[in-house]
Design goal:
two-stranded parallel sheet, 8 strands, alpha+beta
Amino acid sequence: MRVIIEGRLPDLTPAVIDEALRMQSGRTGEPFPRYAHQDLELDGIASKSGDLILVRLEAARRDPAHFTDPDRFLPGRRSSPPLVFGHGPHYCLGAVLARAEIGAALSALSRHLPGVRPAEPLESVEWTTNSVDIGPLAVRVTW
């Protein structure tokens, strides 16, 4: 995956947090098992009612038919809400707290290190590869 981030840390708004969540949506854990409620065809593959379908959230949030330049970090893009916390009756009860924590961390970082920037190209950052927790092993910065 190659993610492109333009400029310095953007203003801390819900749009920034939503875009960060979109970029990470579905990057951890296993696919979500779902069952077809009716016969359907997706991308040329037929499924019958009752068939098990494995849904990967990162595919939904990186669909180039829905998102222009889906691997680019673009806060404020017009989009549906991130799926990282689920949807409907299964929506995560901790979503508000998680958003507040992300906002607080980014706010503190920009306040205490206003000139922080990557010390190396983002494409060279190594990421964990296990299926439980996905993220950068280290991000070296300078200020």
